[in-house]
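Data deposition worksheet. Section B asks for the primary sequence of the deposited chain exactly as it was used as input, without tags or linkers unless they were present during the calculation. Section C holds the resulting structure in token form. Section D is free text for depositor observations; keep each observation to a single sentence. Incomplete worksheets are returned to the depositor.
Section A, Depositor: J.P.
Section B:
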Amino acid sequence: MYSFRKSKKGFTLIELMVVVAIIGVLSLLGLRLYTGQQDKAKEAIVKANASTVHTLIQAELADGAISDVLDEIDCTATSCANMQNPFENNIVATATPTAGEAAGVVLITASGTSTFTVEAYDAKGSLMSNFKLRAQR
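Section C:
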């Protein structure tokens, strides 16, 4: 005669649904942390660009070519091969400010003939907090 024994092999549908739900929650948490780290990395690139521009300005000031400082630093993504804007593929560094600077832009302002300020903008287009470099002769 055929016996109706319950087999203990395999998983129930509820167990599989619980596992899928746990995997979904963990992947959402991981994705959120990943996007936050991407923004931090892009802001680090912008800070590195600002530091590079600051070094270039200091070198120009040391050479004494004050009038050429802004002309040589003012660049777009095509003329600054070693620097890139991680947020947009447009201006990397500029000495001519426009209203509401774009994300990732390094802004250079001159006060007088021997003092320059280098500022960097974050993903929202606002000035990065606690990050302002000055170069002066």
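Section D:
The longest strand covers residues 127-136.
The chain has one domain: 13-136.
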